[in-house]
Amino acid sequence: MNRIELTRNPFIKKALKSRYPQLAVFIVMLVGYIFAILAGLIGTPVGSHNFSIVFVWIAWWAILILVAVPFFGRGWCAVCPIPLPGEWLQRGAVLSPPEKRPKWLNLHVPKMFRNIWLQNISFLLLALFSSVLLTTPNITGIVLAAMLFAAIGLSTIFERRAFCRYLCPVGGFIGLYSQTAPIELRIKDKQVCATCDGKPCYNGSQAGYGCPWDVFPGGITKNTYCGLCMECIRTCPHDNIAINLRPFLADLAKPSTRMDEAFKAFIMLGSAMIYAGVLLGPWGAFKDAAYNVGTNAWFIYVVIFLAIIFVVLPGLFTLGILQTKSPLPLKQRFASLATALIPLGLMFWVAFSLSFVLTNASYIIAALSDPLGLGWNLFGTANLPWQPMLSFILAPAQTLSLVGGLIWSARTAQKAANEIKASSTPVIVFCFLTTLVMLWLLL
Ligand code: SF4
Ligand code: SF4
Ligand code: SF4
Predict the structure, then answer these.
(1) Pocket test for ligand 3, best of 228, 233, 239 (most atoms within 8 A of CB)
(2) 260 and 247: one domain?
(3) pLDDT reported for residue 146
(4) What are 143-152's contacts with CB under 8 Å, separation 24+?
(5) Residue with CA nearest ligand 1 atom 2
(6) Number of separate domains in the chain
(7) Whole-model pTM above 0.85?
(8) Is 215 in the pocket of ligand 3 (CB under 6 A)?
(9) Residues 41 and 120 both lie in one domain
């Protein structure tokens, strides 16, 4: 497959090798993140007029799901402020490695947690409480602060970025969908790595830190767990790391074999469908149940939510693949063929988010002038009335996303089925039926 090495460009390479451009972005992001926490805690309780709700759940979400993940994979993780204070504390430095590093516990994360099940659970918890989270500024402020403190706490107990790698609810799905992005970090020459002394990209050196994501760059075959922190570009003494442009979906040519990743694909696919039904559908009772956290109706909503994700969707998928003959055990077939749900799920989220974001985008312009809802009018836009934006493109853009996702997932299903010598037909039928349901829910 064709690759274009972006790091051949001396300007890009210099910018990535230097710590200063990234630090400048980090500081802006960290200031914005702390402001979002404060806005959530001390600003107006009216969600649609509070910076924490409007900028985190509308503006950031739109940028993340419509631009950052599809085009830059883990690009958001490259500038995310959440792990920074913990990482600076762990390293005892903000820039280059210090002479003497602080003596934190530096433990290995226990083997049973070295997967993305905790990320699956943390995402589901946010999803189940999302109606409150998305509308109540102080809950958003508390959750943002909790993530910052959890990342700091884990940095003082475990080595590297344990929070990002094993717990972050956002990092789990960014990693899954980053496999579709047309950008990657890879080594240039395997032979150079094979003879490289000390593997500083993983173990660190005077030039920089060992991979914070606990990944050996020489062994990367997919984007999922590389946080694009650029540290290995700084530490590799042989200039053997490249950032490449590549075709979309390149990582999906080799299907996954992991059940935690397969279930992540079902969790994301199912959540997008449920949100589309509950938040945008005509069923008031479902919406009431989702919003009335703690009531009997909400508990029924939770049971239905989890049943769709863990029983109905995987059950129908399994019934389909049971019809295919393959020399592999069912579990392995399930995990491999679930790779086809990755582009489908991403496009479901794109289609759902278009509705959500275009409907609410006018709040962003108003909140710029009055981010805490205290009656300011900094740029004269505070009183802009709510109005949906670009409504005329919504239905065509959603249809295009869903049909595009179906075509991508069918191609991915064929490749995965070829790899494991099974038929792709049941998976394509499953993707077709779920796409029909999503079209019905959204349009
Ligand atoms: S995994 Fe989560 S906390 Fe870590 S960099 Fe990515 S989004 Fe930020
Ligand atoms: S430091 Fe460079 S050459 Fe050495 S193992 Fe890492 S990527 Fe390969
Ligand atoms: S050090 Fe390299 S391989 Fe590790 S997360 Fe950073 S960019 Fe990815």
Answers:
(1) 228
(2) no
(3) 98
(4) 144/33, 144/36, 144/37, 144/40, 144/52, 144/56, 145/37, 145/41, 147/82, 148/33, 148/37, 148/82, 148/85, 151/82, 151/83, 151/85, 151/86, 152/85, 152/86, 152/89
(5) 171
(6) 2
(7) yes
(8) yes
(9) yes
